[in-house]
Amino acid sequence: MKKLICVAAAFAMVAGIATVASAEVNLSGDARARLRYNDSGLIDSNSVSKWDSRIRFKIEAKTESGAYVKVRLRFLDGTWGLGNDYSATAKGDNNVWSDYAFLGFKVGNLDIAAGKMPTSFSAWFVDDERADRFRVLYRTGGTAVAFTFDKKIYEYKDLTTSVSVPYTLADGNVGNTLVQIPGNPLGGDKDVWGVTFRQKFSDTAKMGVRAVYVADSTNADKDGFKGSVNGEMSFAGNKIEGEFSFKDGDTVTVGSDDQIGGYVGWSAAYGAITPDVKVGFTKDGFTTDQTFGWLMIGGDVPTSNITRVGLGGDTVFIGASSGFQASEALSFQGNLVYLDRDATTQLGYGDNPIEVSGQAKYMVGKGIALIARAGWLGSDGDADDAVSAYGQMEVNF
Questions:
Q1: 257-397 adopts what CATH topology?
Q2: Are the C-beta atoms of residues 313 and 343 closer than 8 Å to each other?
Q3: Average per-residue pLDDT in the chain?
Q4: Whole-angstrom Cα distance, residue 193 to residue 152?
Q5: Residue 356 and which of 163, 194, 242, 293 are 20 to 30 A apart at CA?
Q6: Beta strand pairing status for 386-396 and 313-325?
Q7: How far apart are CA 386 and CA 374, in angstroms?
Q8: pLDDT at 14 over 50
Q9: Sign of the CA dihedral 283, 284, 285, 289?
Q10: DSSP-assigned states of every residue in 259-313
Q11: What three-state secondary structure class fits 387?
């Protein structure tokens, strides 16, 4: 990260007077380009090859008085290779946009902020999402408590209707005219009120709790609670982690069962080898955030129809991974994942899909990496096996 001292001058053009305010500005970012191949294995579905790329800049500025702004700009973020056209990720096909931008200030232990903000709690519960948020954060020692208000939806509908009313013409024939019948306007909000508590007990133990209440007046009776609690502990080169989550069924579909899910994980470092095992379950429709997972099932870039663990039915899973640091520049990772799924939606992979996947990463230089990934997904379903592979070049600065 490069640190620059910038001076912002506002000129009074008529009087010719300038006022100067100093701010510390941090600039960082990342960029990537990928070539991806995916054969979903679904019947009547062709394999797809496509190229995507993006460049992102993070700008963080703060003043001596404690005020700050945080912005992330994205450039030409989208996919190539789908015909002759470029498909941008941003709404409206804009090739320069921002996925978050917010401002705030700090007073003592308080940090107050508002704007379009990241809403990450964990890879399991909610991770790479954004919200129009107002947040009050209190920090002291190893304790952090945040109160949040997210504005999700504001809806207004004009319920005026047109009714065809028959009438008799002078010649005896019947005609029709449209009559406007005003109705009551329908307005509604979907708001999410939340609190996050994080406690660091020591350098080796910490926990977090996130609880929210969804107030949804745009749909009848879709109010309810969601929450998650997680923790981790490290000892003698080992780490134990886990999380348990709850979602009121009414927040998804009125009258549905409450949703639950959880997992426990173990990871360690034995020289150049770093094993990682996760075991968990989802029930009654609970799905994890997409970030939780591996390559074919979930993960930051899922390459099968099982984009989230728990999608398509109650699930019990076990995922075993292992990293190997072959040299300072070269590393490998392998994944073996099994889902025991009581499928309500086939997704083309039956009840018991298995993933075998791996990654090789080579650091060309500081902040420059070449990555290759490949994976296979098979099951007892009727679909063919799914296969995925891609190569990626990335730069961090």
A1: Porin (2.40.160)
A2: yes
A3: 84
A4: 11
A5: 242
A6: unpaired
A7: 11
A8: no
A9: negative
A10: EEEEEEEEEE-BTTEEEEEEEEEEETT----TTSB-SSSBSSS--SS--STTTTE
A11: strand
Which residues are CB-contacts of 42 (< 8 A; sequence separation ≥ 6)? 305, 348, 383, 384, 386
Q: Write the pLDDT tens digit of every residue in 47-100.
A: 778 888 889 999 999 999 999 999 999 988 887 765 545 565 554 456 788 999
Q: What is the pLDDT of residues 170-183, one digit of tens each?
A: 556 656 666 665 55
Q: Which tokens in the block code for residue 26?
A: 């941090």
Measured over the CA atoms of residue 18, residue 19, residue 22 and residue 23, the dihedral's sign is negative
- In DSSP terms, 209 is beta-bridged to 197, 229
Domain with CATH 2.40.160.40 in the chain: 257-397
Q: Which residue has the tokens 């590393």?
A: 331
CA-closest candidate to residue 276, choices 245, 238, 219, 229: 238
**What are 189-226's pLDDT values in tens digits?**
789 999 999 999 999 999 999 999 999 877 667 889 99
| pLDDT tens sequence across 96-134 | 889 999 999 999 999 999 999 999 999 999 998 999 999
Structure tokens given for 223: 């109010």
How far apart CA 336 and CA 147 sit, in angstroms, is 39
Structure tokens at 390: 């891609």
Counting other chains too, the contacts that 71-78 makes at CB distance below 8 Å and 24 or more residues apart are 71/98, 71/100, 71/101, 72/98, 72/99, 72/100, 72/101, 73/97, 73/98, 74/98, 74/99, 77/53, 78/52, 78/53, 78/54
